[in-house]
């Protein structure tokens, strides 16, 4: 089965071997405060810095999900409340989670700006020049949800203080782990707020990470698989080029070689990693069912576009032959 689902998405094909390796070698049974395990944590962070070109003064921590990162930003980094300029279902959900913790009582006094870089629900993205504009105009911290683009696109990390992603989308790994990246400025803010109330308070996580440890028993298998995948992938600038070329091809193909309509009309708003295709409800239902018969899983629509779109993940774990197979299917459809 070939899958273009945007999350959980196709895992790198090598992950099957890496998982077997982790179990056979006993990595998954290592105590998480042992030297062997701490070496894996340390090496995984080193590789993330290297392969994703993350600035050396930005910190990296491992938590469980992007949803958890939403709460960490609200609990540990937000003084008054946060501002959420969103354009889709995940952005809205983030705002709802954050405002349950730090309600917006007086509009305009927010000290954290929360941006979803790639809105998985409708296939739109916030480009680096827009983020740069936010950076110029907003004096507080900026937090970026990059769940469906981190690992696929090159970012200007300096444009935000917090970046995070769970690993089951663009990073091509099984769910249950998230990467949380934060700047020295974010850490300073956490120290001022001094939240130590929760098991996942950022300061508590940070102090553990300084020892290559985590507050609770982490997803050791997930961290090991992330390390192995980071060893295997090319530098992010190369991956970025591949993904942008593939995205341009996809949009060109859908517009010129099929009768489908793109959900997002303005090319500059279109995502490079999640492509949303629009159609009549019956046509969408039929194409998904027929694709399944051909061994291809298309992504369902999400939220408001549940029944009138399908989505195509354009993540680096997806291979050229799989893309060709979906194109052949869509050509004849
Ligand atoms: C999937 C997704 C999430 C939620 O990720 P979890 O790992 O389930 O917490 C958050 N934001 C975006 C943009 C997503 O695509």
From TrEMBL:
Q: Which cofactor does it need?
A: pyridoxal 5'-phosphate
A GO biological process this protein is involved in? glycine biosynthetic process, by transamination of glyoxylate
Is Transferase among this UniProt entry's keywords? yes
Q: What is this protein called?
A: Aminotransferase class V-fold PLP-dependent enzyme
Fetch the Gene3D superfamilies from UniProt. Answer: Aspartate Aminotransferase, domain 1 (3.90.1150.10), Type I PLP-dependent aspartate aminotransferase-like (Major domain) (3.40.640.10)
Task: Tell me which UniProt keywords the record has, alphabetically.
Answer: Aminotransferase, Pyridoxal phosphate, Transferase
Annotated source species? Larkinella knui
GO molecular-function annotation terms? alanine-glyoxylate transaminase activity; L-serine-pyruvate transaminase activity
- Superkingdom of the source? Bacteria
Q: Ranges for the Aminotransferase class V domain?
A: 7-78, 109-282
Pfam families associated with the record: Aminotran_5
- Entry-linked PANTHER family: ALANINE--GLYOXYLATE AMINOTRANSFERASE, AMINOTRANSFERASE CLASS V
